[in-house]
Amino acid sequence: MDRSKKILQYFPIILIFCYSLCSAFALFMSGDDYIWYYADSTESLSGYRVPNGRYFSNFITKIIVRNAPVRTIFYTVSLVAFLIIFSRLADYKNKSGRVRYYFVILCFTLIPASTYAEVLNWISGYTNYLFSTLLTVIYICFFFRTVFSDYTPKICLVPLFFGLSLAGGLCVEHVTIYNIILAISSIVIIYKKRKRVFPHSIFYLVGAVTAAVIMFSNSMYNTISESGDSLGNRSFEIHFADAFMNAFLYVVMHYARDYWIVNIIITLSFVMIYYNNPETVKKSKYATLCMLICCCFTMYSVFTSCFSDFRVMSLSMTVRALETAFAFIYVVAIAYNIWIYFDVRTRFRAYLYLLSTLLVSGPFLFVSPVTARCFFVNYMFWILLCGEIFFSAAEYIKIEMAEKFFTAMSACAVALMMNIGISNKCCDVIRFNYIKEQVDSNAKIIQCIKLPYEEYVHDDLCLDYFFDGILDHEQSYGKYTFMYHGIENGEDYKDKLSLIDIYDYRILTDG
């Protein structure tokens, strides 16, 4: 094999590594990261030392906010593992070779910008959401391998499965609940398929239950259910009226609608399958109707995500109710198409992913407020579902053409995201150096540079509550942000801050 073919063979892994490493280097502190940095050493922040039951992810966060080299290694290794495992799950039958890696890279980098900002570009969000999802899909790989083959895992691996579920269950609440459901379901399905129960699945269940008991034993959850979260502004209500309101205001808005690229791929895949299976379509009463529903929902998804959202103009929230019904019909249409077109094994995996999107989104019917990062795990299961559908339709296209297309698109997406990350990182370094220069010179107005790509990262300095005392003991994020960057008494400059663009800064300093 000549050098060019070797490079081509390993190019997707090289692309994943470069993307992960660049993203790790581009990561910088923001928001709660500063609170984690000072919580253990500052008495006034003692309430944030153990703010919830996410003991494992909180522990990791405390380590990596204090140690940049460890953070870079942890972020790079975990993101590389995440993308490789997802690629192999998305095309479980390995029909496409390298295309599956490009496919996942493309879908992953094109998740909604707000979710990307709150997970990939935020240390506190990364450890909670992406890392917990990684631990969960590792078990899904084991689950599929056990069900779809004669694989018998080594007994010495049993403790690893307990640790896997225990660690993953102590990261974020909805994944904790999902892991228990997944563990129970896997035991039943494996027994039905293999006529035996593996201790690995039993210990995974024990670890998942143990994690749930430890997590929800934290007094914070009892406080949230009774009077709300005094630290994180969360509330928990089990009432149908509240559930419907949350569905209208939060869940439906982010469940499937925002992820327009996945909806496009799913619909185009079903279109290819539809026109290449006339006999199946003829036998299936609702095949054409479900195809039209997928097309309409995709158009609606693209319009509301890229052009304009529908506005609520009545107290009855009729628009949101219709959108909720449309999302439900879309899911039903996908489920129907999966049933009529796919074989048993493909159908099983696709249904697991589709059901998983509902399970990891369901808890947010009862929790408010809901933020963009809450739907990260949901989007990851949509990627896997999309991959299962797309690679089932791949037999109707030339894989060589698909590889060229996805190689170009994924490489372009990675280049764009690397540019965004590096630009924001460099600007963050420049702006705090500039602030210190102005403070040292006793400037009457402190000019703060806005980050160039605010939609892909939380810009602390642009937040209305940056210097408001919303933390425990009437403290502010601004105090600890400025303190971390070597600016004492940062709150004294609250009324002196003025926001400027990076372009304006260049004019002022280079002009």
Architecture overview:
68% of the residues lie in helices and 2% in strands. The protein is built from 21 helices and 4 strands. Helix 2 (32-39) packs across helix 3 (55-66) and helix 16 packs antiparallel against helix 17. The longest helix has 42 residues, at 399-440.
The major pleated sheet works out as:
2 strands, antiparallel
Round the Cα radius of gyration to an integer and report it. Answer: 24 Å
Relative helix content: 55-70%
Order of helices and strands: HHHHHHHHHHHEHHHHHHEHHEHEH
Mean pLDDT: 88
Distance between the termini: 55 Å
In short:
The protein is an all-alpha fold and 511 residues long.
Quickly list its features.
511 residues; two-stranded antiparallel ribbon; 2% strand; mainly alpha; two-stranded parallel ribbon; 68% helix; globular
Secondary structure: elements and pairs:
Blueprint: H1 3-26, H2 32-39, H3 55-66, H4 68-90, H5 99-109, H6 113-119, H7 123-148, H8 158-169, H9 173-194, H10 199-216, H11 219-227, E1 235-236, H12 240-255, H13 260-275, H14 278-283, H15 287-306, H16 318-341, H17 344-361, E2 367-368, H18 376-393, H19 399-440, E3 446-449, H20 477-484, E4 497-500, H21 502-510
Parallel strand pairs: 3-4
Antiparallel strand pairs: 1-2
